[in-house]
């Protein structure tokens, strides 16, 4: 049995997880120095929720992957230390400030853990901490300090959705996914939430994906499952080619499902990995779709590659090309830009065999065969590209490996959002 | 004596070179199938000039560097064969169609050489051919055939400027540079023209730079001087991170200056290289400044690097960052994005020592020291960034090597231009 079913919810869909997200007014405090909490009821919140907490009612096995950017956010350093023993029980994450390139960054990140641990009556080193937002501005700790009681007293199963809201920055919608599957006949759940939507070109992980599961699995397999899954999901998306300083994907497994514990590779582990991939790939697609200013999701499917590495390089190169991304915004089937982007990867293959098709919900059009153009109806192509999910199918006819990458179009709004992000 | 003086003109500034550029109506023919030449007087030309010719009255030593994109334009293949003997006498280049990813591409490129050679009474393998424009559409040869007589009969010293116009695509101004210098007391000239302005992220060369000189220099030294110079000029600019399929920089040296021939490395060779760098770097800066949709030239100067390779990687990473480029368009001193772009290079150095300043004609502001922010006036920064040439000074304090890269801001107009380039 390895059937995987999508269900409602996110990080609180698995048994034994509670969450919450409230508005502590971090940005307001950065501007004015004033601490201005919002109503704790979760109703009529005047400003955006900006601090999230996830809590497991029992201890968890935990794993994470982090950005490869040499400039790393302070929370990354603290979280790495806290996860050294493969255990955690809670997450605290804020938006509005990345707490990166600040002299007092680590101290503030640790304070966030300490404050939460005290309220939850757990140890500070059981807390994962994350921050996202502007780089290089001091994180005001006072609003978080003032809001921590409200955050913890409001923890609930329905609070998963508030947590997903609280980590949003320029995201236009919150990103939650959950699946159910069976291990040894016992139903298990994996849930997750993530945020985009700029500085997205992950290298090992992406800016904030939090996954929870009630499956029972040991720490080393959990880490391996996450690391492998990240390579097929978050590492295969790009919004703007900028690898963030604060990227992190983490997973908490509390075992509350009471499945036979997964302690070795085999059928159960494979089922768990499939379910985890399903969650991560769906979250990754949502992040690409909600890329800053994006109007379209681009999915580039490469097949016939001599090896997986080549397939990945080609797929990512296409979804990263500014020229191609702008053409998709303009609904222009300018396939020459696809060939160009394939050509400037450093992967080795025979470009003269390359076949390219464009597809969407309305159909498929072949635009290139054996590395040269084929005649097609521009009008038909325009109609196809008017849809909001575009698939670029590339067959290199040079082997059997394949890979898929996701990206988005390049639009006026990307420029607008990033021309005045700080102000 | 190695003083270098900027003079008026471009490819016809050196002795013995003639050029011309006329409107053959290539784009018009692609749309309608109709051949519609423009008035040969060069006055009142109704459509954009689209075919350029450069001719040396005496045989030349020649050298070139080409794109590293695996998808290569057909003209590149033909030019490589023609330059195998290190000799050439003429150039023919068209805009409006890249003659790339076409089944009959090489045949058409060779036809262009043959037609020109017949009119000039030279051999076809003395002709360098280049094309720029849309990829994957058949190049109509008829308009060029019809225009070749007009092109050749109008060759003149003043025609260099027409040639520079004829290779423009989305460029907003033509790019010409010339310098004079002395070799063994004899005045020599190097002149050049180039075109941008999208798909600019050169790897070995950039889309169409043509350099001429009347200096007398042997073929192997000419090739080495060009290869070295390209690394410091065209390979250090980026408009959009897309490496073109048709990039080419070539140089013709006809020896008409009658300087003592440069046959070995030494003072004369060094002087020649300095003059060549001057021309290429100025042309490269013009291409960055005229990047598609650009309102600002970005110059990133990296110093204190452990080695030149690291300095180059850091400098290019900053001018390539979409996020930073959008911030510059918005005149927002969002230096966190500079640190982020430095951090995601694969170069090895100590990020905690990094110092960053922003500068323009109105002043300099330090924004980051020892990898963390320093207080500065946002208002002052805004004023500084309102200028149209912005310098980003990065000192890694980790060695003695340095490098400079050039780019441009990311604007609404980049998206607009590339959202409907073909239509």
UniProtKB/TrEMBL annotation, chains A, B:
InterPro entries: Arg_biosynth_ArgJ (IPR002813), ArgJ-like_dom_sf (IPR016117), ArgJ_beta_C (IPR042195). Substrate binds at residues 169, 195, 206, 292, 418, 423. One of its GO terms (biological process) is L-arginine biosynthetic process. The record marks 132-133 as: Involved in the stabilization of negative charge on the oxyanion by the formation of the oxyanion hole. Its EC number is 2.3.1.35, 2.3.1.1. Pathway: Amino-acid biosynthesis; L-arginine biosynthesis; N(2)-acetyl-L-ornithine from L-glutamate: step 1/4; Amino-acid biosynthesis; L-arginine biosynthesis; L-ornithine and N-acetyl-L-glutamate from L-glutamate and N(2)-acetyl-L-ornithine (cyclic): step 1/1. HAMAP family: ArgJ. Belongs to the ArgJ family. Catalyzes two activities which are involved in the cyclic version of arginine biosynthesis: the synthesis of N-acetylglutamate from glutamate and acetyl-CoA as the acetyl donor, and of ornithine by transacetylation between N(2)-acetylornithine and glutamate. Heterotetramer of two alpha and two beta chains. This is Arginine biosynthesis bifunctional protein ArgJ. It comes from Acetanaerobacterium elongatum. The gene is argJ.
């Amino acid at each position: 049995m390895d059937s995987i079913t999508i269900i409602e919810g996110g990080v609180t869909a698995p048994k034994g997880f509670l969450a919450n997200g409230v508005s502590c007014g971090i940005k307001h405090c950065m501007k004015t120095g004033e601490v201005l909490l919002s109503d704790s009821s979760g109703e009529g919140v005047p400003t955006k929720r900006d601090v999230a907490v996830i809590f497991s009612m029992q201890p968890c096995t935990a794993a994470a992957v982090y950005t490869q950017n040499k400039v790393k956010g302070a929370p990354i350093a603290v979280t790495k230390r806290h996860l050294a023993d493969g255990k955690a029980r809670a997450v605290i994450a804020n938006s509005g400030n990345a707490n990166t390139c600040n002299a007092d960054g680590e101290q503030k990140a640790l304070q966030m853990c300490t404050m939460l641990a005290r309220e939850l009556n757990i140890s500070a080193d059981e807390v994962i901490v994350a921050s996202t937002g502007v780089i290089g501005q001091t994180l005001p700790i006072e609003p978080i300090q003032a809001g921590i009681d409200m955050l913890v007293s409001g923890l609930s199963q329905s609070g998963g959705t508030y947590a997903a809201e609280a980590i949003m920055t320029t995201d236009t919608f919150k990103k939650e996914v959950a699946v159910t599957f069976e291990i040894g006949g016992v139903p298990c759940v994996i849930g997750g939430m993530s945020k985009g939507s700029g500085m997205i070109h992950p290298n090992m992980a992406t800016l904030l994906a939090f996954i929870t599961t009630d499956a029972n699995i040991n720490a080393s397999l959990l880490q391996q499952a996450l690391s492998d899954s990240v390579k097929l999901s978050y590492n295969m998306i790009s919004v703007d080619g900028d690898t963030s300083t604060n990227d992190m994907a983490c997973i908490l497994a509390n075992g509350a499902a009471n499945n036979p514990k997964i302690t070795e590779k085999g059928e159960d582990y494979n089922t768990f990995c499939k379910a985890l991939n399903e969650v991560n790939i769906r979250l990754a697609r949502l992040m690409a779709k909600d890329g800053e200013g994006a109007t379209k999701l681009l999915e580039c499917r490469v097949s016939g590659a001599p090896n997986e590495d080549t397939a990945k390089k080609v797929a990512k190169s296409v979804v990263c090309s500014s020229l191609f991304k702008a053409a998709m915004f303009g609904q222009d089937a300018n396939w020459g830009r696809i060939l160009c982007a394939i050509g400037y990867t450093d992967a080795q293959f025979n470009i003269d065999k390359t076949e390219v098709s464009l597809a969407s919900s309305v159909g498929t059009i072949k635009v290139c065969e054996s590395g040269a153009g084929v005649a097609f109806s521009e009008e038909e192509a325009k109609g196809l590209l008017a849809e909001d999910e575009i698939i670029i199918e590339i067959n290199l006819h040079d082997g059997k490996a394949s890979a898929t990458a996701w990206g988005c179009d390049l639009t006026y709004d990307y420029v607008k959002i990033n021309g005045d992000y700080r102000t």
